[in-house]
TrEMBL record:
It comes from the Bacteria. InterPro entries: Lipid_II_flippase_MurJ/MviN, MurJ. It is a multi-pass membrane protein. It is found in: Cell membrane. Keywords: Cell membrane, Cell shape, Membrane, Peptidoglycan synthesis, Transmembrane, Transmembrane helix. GO terms for molecular function: lipid-linked peptidoglycan transporter activity. It comes from Actinomadura livida. Residues 516-571 are annotated as: Disordered. Pfam families: MurJ. GO terms for biological process: lipid translocation; peptidoglycan biosynthetic process; regulation of cell shape. The keyword S-adenosyl-L-methionine does not apply. This is Lipid II flippase MurJ.
Length: 571
């Protein structure tokens, strides 16, 4: 495939994925809007959000992070050598279902105790226990959905995985609309359980087709790829990393449960808005992760370094531009989205203040997701990301414990932003010695420049808001503010000179090369070169086994990431 075709394939995959993810995110917003309309920010919504901790935790663990970071490289290696994932699926999936079912039953039985641990000061404990038991089913359904999603992504079939949250939110909305008048907030928990089943259903046809189309692995390969001890050693650091990262939410809700009723809900509504640009910024990272895994498998660390810098530059620009807008227009954003029904102007004021603080940590959230993928794309399991995230969690906990009682939810939002930003800096600093020759000084300069540009764009947004005045309808202020902030960001980026934008272009050119040959000698931005000496293994080119292509001469999974077949998106 030519470089132009590669770029087109990746672009179309990202575009189609973006449409599906955007639809799922949009329905997620509708879900949150409906909950806010029906129940406001109250003791009932606090109770549901404690139960929401289960799907909120198992989603990154079993769909977005741990499962993907484990399964995509494993299946990619199987495809790269011409084997299929049938043996892996036949051995690992039944065991996974049994283990997760046991975990779900434990959560159902221990629901009262777990609720008391998560939120000791909760007002509506009974509703929380009831919702907690219903959402426990997601431990099983998310696990199966995540297994399917990772397998499909490794085959570069990104469409069905991209649709899972669309299906999930359809189920939640259906039960909220139909049952909320009868069972109250419990309707949302019933919807979570049923929506999670739809996540499996939407992927099942493509998953079955992948298994039928792939060749069976030789007996020796089957034993090697599904050996339980190897799988456990590989997954343990990822699980610990993911749970530790999610523990930031546990810390927030633990301290917020001792504050006024509705505090957990205010934090949640603000976080949902702030997460949108972060999720969209990681879209490109999800699409390019198979490519990163293949570069790691090839031992081409210079190519890995270019991929990391390019993805970080794109993600940073996206989240910092969004942060500038959110800080400038948080009150209007929350008013337009939530202020109706049971959601009051006071709820808007409290949620908007939290959103402005959360926005300060958006870059850290995005950078953590990017850097962690680079660590976990390696063959050897690594505990470094978990250690770095634990350091950030310690900062979050310390700030929350010290200031939650006096500063309330704003202190908890600031603790979140500070902790995740520290973790991001530590992860990025650890890339060079542990992963690839990443040009840390140039990355730091790129990010700092983008932060200054974002600060200028935020000032322009605040100026636009002041000119329009409080009497202007909120929707008009948002439209004019988005245009003004985006224009200021673009103009300041151009005025800042060749920096991050130039790095995106050069990184793209180096990744594909004018001849389309990946892995050939080229000079990195840090002055190093890509040659056999950069590879993570010591096997000379002449001693490397010849790559085995499947029948028909097709590249298995598009060189495991260099190409994305047309029409295949992501979650």
């Amino acid at each position: 495939m030519t470089p132009a075709a590669r770029a087109t394939s990746v672009g179309r995959a990202a575009a189609l994925s973006g449409v599906l993810i955007g639809a799922g995110t949009g329905l997620g917003f509708v879900r949150d809007l409906l909950v806010a309309h029906l129940f406001g920010a109250s003791a009932d919504t606090d109770a549901f959000l404690v139960a929401w901790t289960i799907p909120e935790t198992v989603s990154p663990l079993l769909i977005e992070d741990a499962m993907a970071l484990l399964m995509v490289p494993v299946v990619t290696r199987l495809l790269a050598r011409g084997d299929g994932p049938r043996a892996l699926v036949g051995t690992a999936l039944p065991r996974l279902v049994i283990a997760l079912s046991a975990g779900a039953l434990v959560l159902v039985a221990a629901a009262p105790f777990v609720v008391d641990v998560l939120a000791p000061g909760l007002a509506e404990r009974g509703a929380a226990v009831r919702c907690f038991r219903l959402t426990a089913v997601t431990v099983v359904t998310f696990g199966v959905a995540g297994f399917m999603s990772a397998t499909l992504r490794a085959h570069h079939r990104f469409g069905p995985p991209a649709a899972i949250y669309l299906a999930y939110n359809v189920g939640i909305l259906a039960f909220l609309a139909g049952l909320s008048g009868l069972v109250g907030i419990t309707a949302a928990a019933v919807g979570v359980a049923c929506g999670s089943v739809l996540m499996i259903a939407v992927q099942a046809p493509a998953f079955v087709r992948c298994l039928r189309a792939s060749p069976a692995a030789p007996p020796a390969a089957r034993e090697r790829d599904v050996e339980p001890r190897i799988v456990l050693l590989a997954v343990a650091p990822i699980v610990v990393y993911t749970v530790t990262r999610q523990a930031q939410v546990f810390v927030e809700r633990f301290f917020a449960s001792e504050l006024a009723a509705g505090s957990i809900s205010h934090l949640n509504y603000a976080q949902k808005v702030a997460q949108v640009p972060m999720v969209l910024s990681l879209l490109i990272v999800t699409v390019t992760f198979p490519s990163l895994a293949r570069a790691m498998a090839d031992g081409d660390t210079a190519r890995v370094a270019h991929r990391i810098r390019q993805d970080l530059a794109v993600a940073s620009a996206m989240v910092l531009a969004a942060a500038a807008f959110l800080i400038a227009f948080a009150p209007a954003v929350i008013k337009v989205l939530f202020e109706h029904g049971e959601f009051t102007p006071d709820d808007t004021r409290r949620t908007a203040a939290i959103l402005r603080v959360y926005a300060l940590g958006l870059w850290g959230q995005s950078a953590v997701g990017l850097a962690a993928r680079a660590f976990f794309a390696q063959r050897r399991p690594t505990w470094r990301p978990a250690a770095f995230i634990a350091a950030g969690l310690a900062v979050t906990t310390a700030i929350g414990a010290a200031f939650a009682a006096s500063a309330g939810t704003l202190a908890l939002a600031a603790a979140n932003a500070a902790g995740i930003t520290l973790a991001a800096v530590l992860l990025l600093a650890g890339l060079r010695p542990d992963v690839a020759p990443v040009p840390l000084r140039r990355i730091a300069a790129d990010v700092l420049r983008l932060m200054l540009i974002a600060a200028g764009a935020c000032a322009a947004g605040l100026g636009t808001d002041a000119v329009l005045g409080a009497g202007t309808p909120a929707v008009v202020r948002l439209a004019a503010g988005a245009a003004g902030t985006a224009a200021a960001f673009a103009v300041l980026t151009v005025l800042a000179g060749p920096g991050p934008v130039a790095s995106w272009i050069t990184a793209s050119w180096h990744t594909a090369g004018p001849s389309g040959a990946l892995g050939r000698r080229f000079r990195t931005d840090s002055g190093e070169t890509s040659d056999p000496a950069h590879r993570t293994d010591d096997t000379p080119d002449r001693d490397r086994p010849a790559r085995r292509d499947p029948p028909g001469g097709e590249d298995p999974a598009g060189a495991a990431g260099a190409d994305v077949p047309l029409g295949r998106p992501l979650p």
